[in-house]
Specification:
- The chain is mainly beta.
- The relative contact order is 0.13.
- This is ErfK/YbiS/YcfS/YnhG family protein.
- InterPro entries: LD-transpeptidase, LD_TPept_cat_dom, SH3-like_bac-type, Transpep_catalytic_dom.
- GO terms for molecular function: peptidoglycan L,D-transpeptidase activity; transferase activity.
């Protein structure tokens, strides 16, 4: 006999077994997906904190290195000496001939040794840029480079080497260019009638020296200018179309301070000693020691006044 119905008793519903199986399968798939995701994260963390050592790919080409060929005595095959890099960039000729080539000049050779031909001769005060050093038979030779713009590049043929025994190493930073507006209390006054240069720091006189400004046909321009470029070495060549018809070829002009974009500069002069009267193609010529002193003191942006 059926039991009487109690309205307060809980109602029990029966879930079909097929539906139960679907729920179990979906739950299992979710567990597998989460497990896979966790494994992936763990693997990535392991790679991040404990990276595996990777092998570098082998270079396909040999690294280039500059060298110079030397004929070895008693051998048919030449040897190659490396041109080593140096920490400095410039050298100054300390032992060379005078302005008129009097005395012993420093020979520039086509290779690192006295068995190489002489390319040219250098006077005292020349400043040159160094591209490297070669050591041979207990002696060092500096390779000279001209990586500046040259008006007549055909005049430079072959390599230039100078013996380290006759030069001084210069620890100079190289080129300085004016960037933006720079205020300077320093000024350089060039008097063409007196052939004198005076440098001031504010109102205080720093130095004065005799100079040589431009000749009558190539005068140093009058006016107010600023030094916009400094460089310890410049290969100066002429003639300059529209400026000077004179031929000249002067490697390593030292301590250059440019104040016009047409090429007028204050610089050291190793090829004459005629200071106190005009002698240049428009530049301001100084004795080399005075030019170096001024170059070290002056800064780009310094005022230059050229007057009569």
């Amino acid at each position: 006999m059926d039991a009487p119905h109690n309205p307060h008793s809980p109602h029990v519903s029966h879930v079909p077994i097929e539906h139960h199986r679907k729920v179990v399968r979906r739950f299992s798939v979710a567990i597998l997906f989460i497990s896979g995701l966790l494994l992936t994260v763990l693997a990535l963390n392991a790679e991040l904190f404990y990276p595996q050592e990777k092998k570098e790919p082998q270079a396909r080409y040999l690294q280039s290195e500059e060298g110079v060929f030397i004929s070895a005595p008693g051998s048919k095959e030449p040897i190659v000496l490396p041109v080593k890099k140096v920490l400095f960039e410039y050298i100054e000729v300390a032992e060379g001939c005078g302005p008129d080539f009097s005395g012993a000049c420093l020979n520039v050779r086509s290779g690192p040794g006295e068995d190489f031909s002489v390319v040219t001769r250098l006077r005292r005060g020349v400043v040159l840029k160094v591209g490297g050093k070669v050591e041979r038979d207990g002696h060092a030779w500096y390779k000279i480079v001209f990586n500046e713009w040259l008006r007549y590049p055909e005049r430079v043929t072959g390599d230039w080497y100078v013996a380290a025994d006759y030069v001084n190493v210069l620890l100079d930073e190289g080129n300085h260019d004016l960037l933006g507006n720079v205020f300077s209390k320093k000024k350089i006054v060039i008097d063409r009638s007196e052939q004198m240069l005076r440098a001031y720091d504010g109102d205080e006189l720093f130095m004065e020296t005799k100079i040589s400004t431009g000749l009558e046909l190539t005068p140093t321009p009058r006016g107010k200018f600023v030094i916009f470029k400094k460089t310890p070495s410049r290969y100066m060549q002429g003639p300059i179309p529209g400026v000077s018809g004179h031929y000249y070829d002067l490697p390593g002009v030292p301590w250059d301070m440019y104040f016009t974009y047409q090429g007028a500069a204050i610089h050291g002069t190793y090829w004459h000693e005629n200071f106190g009267r005009p002698a240049s193609n428009g530049c301001v010529n100084l004795p080399v020691p005075e030019a170096r002193k001024l170059y070290t003191w002056a800064e780009v942006g310094a005022l230059v006044i050229v007057q009569d």
